[in-house]
Design brief:
Length: 231
């Protein structure tokens, strides 16, 4: 059974890989573009074969366990099955020199410091600060502010704009009554019923949308009610 979960993507860019084909092709360096960076993924490199094969001259062959991606007669990548419609590339990630690739200008440092001190204002609010105050240096322009926001340098702002699906999309197909039942317990209610119940056990049939409900005094009554309902 496959469990589908959502993950957070924090960036998009290019990545250089050292291809190590599992079927015997020679090692070579490959650059992938439009790569999504999702730190919470359990596998480092996942790939959509459909996306790769949109590149002219690229094709793939194989079975459910491994695919070979070729251009002409040359094997450029192999991918091992990871999950439904996803394969993990047989590659090593080539990590660039961080000192050379991550460069922050003095302007961006100044903008970032003020942005955080002012309570993380929006881009337009930063424009106003630039226009109506002397909080920023005179050599800082709107383009510098645009660059700051485009690079997503403020981690709290980036994370606050992200959305996470609360529940994964169900892959279960229901075709008859009582095939899938949802249960829940509501309470404790602020006011007891006439019989002393402060909780409500509910059940819903996914196929018919039929509802059942039982007032209960304590959660411990749930097991006996479910057993009686099943029998």
């Amino acid at each position: 059974m496959l469990l589908f979960q959502s993950v957070t993507v924090i960036g998009k860019g290019r990545i250089r890989l050292l291809s190590k084909p599992a079927t015997g092709g020679k090692e070579q360096t490959i650059t992938l573009t439009d790569v999504l960076h999702a730190p919470d993924m359990s596998s480092n490199i996942l790939v959509s074969l459909g996306q790769i094969c949109q590149v002219e001259g690229v094709s793939f062959s194989g079975d459910r366990s491994i695919f070979t991606i070729t251009r002409g007669r040359d094997i450029i990548l192999t991918a091992s099955a990871y999950a439904r419609n996803l394969w993990a590339l047989d590659v090593d990630v080539l990590v660039p020199n961080m000192a050379a690739s991550v460069t922050v200008s003095p302007k961006e440092i100044e903008i970032d410091l003020l942005h955080r001190r002012m309570g993380h204002p929006s881009r337009s609010a930063m424009y106003d600060i630039l226009s109506y105050s002397q909080a920023l240096s005179k050599n800082i322009s709107k383009r510098d502010i645009d660059t700051y926001f485009a690079r997503g340098m403020c981690t709290p702002c980036v994370e606050c704009r992200q959305h996470k699906t609360p529940f994964p999309t169900s892959q279960t197909i229901i075709d008859r009554p009582l095939q899938l039942i949802h249960t829940d317990i509501q309470g404790p209610m602020p006011v007891e019923s006439a019989g002393g119940a402060r909780y409500m056990l509910t059940m819903i049939d996914e196929y018919t949308d039929y509802h059942w409900a039982w007032p209960i005094k304590a959660k411990s009554e749930t097991a006996s009610i479910l057993k009686a309902w099943i029998v």
